[in-house]
Amino acid sequence: MLQIDLWKRVVIWALCALGLLLAVPNAFYSKVEGHNDAIAEIELSGTSPEREAMAAQWPGFLPSGLVNLGLDLRGGAHLLAEVAVEDVYSARMKAFWPEVRDALRPERSTIGTIRLQPSAGDELKVRISEPDGMTRAMEVVRGLAQQVVSLSGVGASDIEVSADGSALTVRLSEAEKRATDERTMQQSLEIIRRRIDEVGTREPTIQRQGTDRILIQVPGIGSAAELKAIIGTTAQLTFQPVLGRGSDPDANAGIGNEILPSLDEEGAYYTLESAPVVTGEELVDAQPAFDQNGRPAVNFRFNPTGARKFGDYTAENIGNPFAIVLDSEVISAPVIQSHISGGSGIITGNFTVEESTNLAVLLRAGALPAGLDFLEERTIGPELGADSIKAGQVACIVAFTAVLIFMFLSYGTFGLFANIALIINVGLIFGLLSMVGATLTLPGIAGIVLTIGMAVDANVLVFERIREEIKSGKGPARAIDLGYEKALSAIIDANITTFITAVILFVMGSGPVRGFAITLGLGILTSVFTAIFVTRLIIVMWFERKRPKELEV
Amino acid sequence: MRLRLVKQDTKFDFFSRWKMWLGISLVMMIVGFASFMYQGLNYGIDFKGGTTIRSESTTPIDVGAYRDAISPLELGDITISEVFDPTFAADQHVAMIRIQAQEGQEAVKSDIIAQVQVALQAIAPDIKFVSVESVGPKVSGELIQTAAIAVVLAIAAVLIYIWLRFEWQFALGAVAALVHDIILTIGIFSELQIKFDLAIIAALLTIVGYSLNDTVVVFDRVRENLRKYKKKPLNEVLNISINETLSRTFMTSVTTLLALIALFVLGGDVIRGFVFAMIWGVIVGTYSSVFVASAILLYLGVKRDWTNKPDANAGTQFANIDA
């Protein structure tokens, strides 16, 4: 009857001890955090006496996992960005035009003259003067197609070519668009990560959400605006041939050309060829520097292909201006003085030192392949987070004490047992949270407080049942036994249903809500464990020692 | 001497007026729903889009002056409210400024926030923005949809689970109680115009969980007593079951409320709405498991031949999972 095998007892106590041990680091939060940071720094950049001292604050043999504090508790910035994946389609089509032109040129005897037509961004429209040569033209352009590189679209061609009278339209195929989207997202994630790492903040979260969104959370940063300054700039650098300069932004640029404003000179506009000679993708390095007049500038170096393209272009166009364009603004448009063969150069403009440093960082980390739209921005100041933690702690302690006193008043000795289990329970929740590296948010603290209130439910069910059994004349041992047996189905059903809602919250929710779901779900697991196993074991141990003739519950 | 919230051996008759209680619940649901339809919820930016700024300053807040300072910026609809909380220091004056979603923008641009700050510094030089949250209309539309799906999913999952473990009448009773709790909670949020944001959805789902917890415990006892008292009429069996579980119902509600009230008073204003929803949910949930769930069960009637099956434990084929 009231027997629990020795091995079971050992397992139960061992689990409790393990859970509590895992929870211990949280009681010394700042020390352990310093220790963890120091260890990470030593691994990254070698040891130093201060770091060793920091690391020694917490003994290495103890677990050092901590509950992560969410942004609402620590302060920091949160951004949800949508990547404009379509940007890439038009960039692709723009860059495709010279290729199409060069391929069609030798066929001029059959297809006549070729002219680029205005078209939507994600397609390329070419008119030929001899409609009879259309079949040949389509054949040639199709010859430029490549196979899509992706898991799903094997064998599909990357472009679709169609003809309408004398107009030939080139478009990206659906398979290629999907593959491009995927690449765009991967690149954007990678570049955002690199940029944030360059600035060097701790534990940023950079996650992909859905098909085209990126969630960025950086604790400890002053504001979302600061974060946006780092990741919000596309930093698309291109070198484009200059056709003219004027002051009318709406002038007719001609097909295949574009008009872009000057960055420094108000009201100045440049007419440029849309297809760039070289792009920032071919940069291998960028460093802040000063030009010969001592003004801040950025030094850059191309990779070999970029260097060759740049070299060839400058050799052919000595005396002509070319424009350095950053995110659709002309930084400068110097005249090519000589053949530049080394593959390095300097960007000058009206920069401050800070701007040139930032630009170098952005160029080095690489351009974002597409623009970002920010759908959600949150900044939480560290003071507010600290206030929330303080308030949460006080509330937890008060709630905890109130429940402990109430349980003791209601159930006496048995209430004490439930209280011990409750203390273990809260310890276990923190232990589990630290083990899985979960994030504690403000609603998460509410979840813990709620668990404190609800955790006693299982014990209450059992104790009430024991009372009933005693009343119906059962002996103490039998009453305890039956109490547990009969209460079990209610405990299981009640907790499974609550657990189901916690799981749904976790799956559907985001951010703070998810934090709440985690603590609620873990709280249910630990409270069922403590009620069914721990309290029972305590009661059995007490019973074996006391052998009471009568039970008072 | 033990603290007893409920006397031993209570014999309250919960079902002498069960039709009246069901009627009252129905009326309250209609009132709540009507309030929701006509007055609408005070949606937070999570669901409506826009920006909220939490400002802090040592100078006392004059809402009118704040409004006058911001209105020249022409940001459309602006709500300003002062926040009071016992956890604040004496010279800590907190205001919440809410700006509507701006035409043609997703999140509000940083320069607008900066402008607002400059404008407010004219009247409160040391003003700080301790949090700024901005949600674009695109996301907020999706958030409300996901939230609605979550609630519906939770109810559906629960319906199926209770159906498997008990009988369909129990499942319907439990779900009726859940819908009752949710409508009343939404109703009070619309009636009192408390801010309804994402966290409140979490609270709603917790209420679902809690109310269910309570209902299931009562139902579990009903199932047991249906086997024990084969000849008694259903309303007596229900009455016995509720009386037997009454002590536990009160104990659990009180411990949970104790914890929640501590959080409500001391937990700070940021989560007060959330905690309020849960407190309300615990009270309504406790009420509904007796007066809605069990009353519906009485109305629908249950199968009484539980013991005809060879296995005495088998209420349904899944009822003995834990046995």
TrEMBL record, chain A:
Main localization category: membrane
Record-annotated membrane-spanning stretches: 391-409, 487-509, 515-539
Cellular-component GO terms for this entry: plasma membrane
Membrane topology: Multi-pass membrane protein
Entry's Gene Ontology BP terms: intracellular protein transmembrane transport; protein targeting; protein transport by the Sec complex
Domain SecDF P1 head subdomain, first and last residues per copy: 258-370
Record-annotated Protein translocase subunit SecDF P1 domain positions: 185-242
InterPro entries documented for this protein: Acrflvin-R, SecD, SecD/SecF_arch_bac, SecD_1st, SecD_SecF_C, SecD_SecF_C_bact, SecDF_P1_head
Location(s), subcellular: Cell membrane
Entries under Pfam families matching the protein: SecD_1st (PF21760), SecD_SecF_C (PF02355), SecDF_P1_head (PF22599)
Molecular function via GO: protein-transporting ATPase activity
Keywords of this entry: Cell inner membrane, Cell membrane, Membrane, Protein transport, Translocation, Transmembrane, Transmembrane helix, Transport
Family statement: Belongs to the SecD/SecF family. SecD subfamily.
Protein name as it appears in the record: Protein translocase subunit SecD
Species this chain originates from: Planktotalea frisia
TrEMBL record, chain B:
Domain Protein export membrane protein SecD/SecF C-terminal: from-to ranges: 116-301
Keyword annotations from UniProtKB, A to Z: Cell membrane, Membrane, Protein transport, Translocation, Transmembrane, Transmembrane helix, Transport
Major place of residence: membrane
Domain of life: Bacteria
Transmembrane segments: 20-38, 143-164, 171-192, 198-222, 250-268, 274-300
Subcellular location as annotated: Cell membrane
SUPFAM superfamilies listed in its UniProt record: Multidrug efflux transporter AcrB transmembrane domain
InterPro entries, per database record: SecD/SecF_arch_bac, SecD/SecF_bac, SecD/SecF_CS, SecD_SecF_C, SecD_SecF_C_bact, SecF_bac
GO CC list: plasma membrane
Function: Part of the Sec protein translocase complex. Interacts with the SecYEG preprotein conducting channel. SecDF uses the proton motive force (PMF) to complete protein translocation after the ATP-dependent function of SecA.
PANTHER family (alphabetical): PROTEIN TRANSLOCASE SUBUNIT SECF, PROTEIN-EXPORT MEMBRANE PROTEIN SEC
Subunit structure: Forms a complex with SecD. Part of the essential Sec protein translocation apparatus which comprises SecA, SecYEG and auxiliary proteins SecDF-YajC and YidC.
NCBIfam families on file: 2A0604s01, transloc_SecF
Protein name (database record): Protein-export membrane protein SecF
Organism: Planktotalea frisia
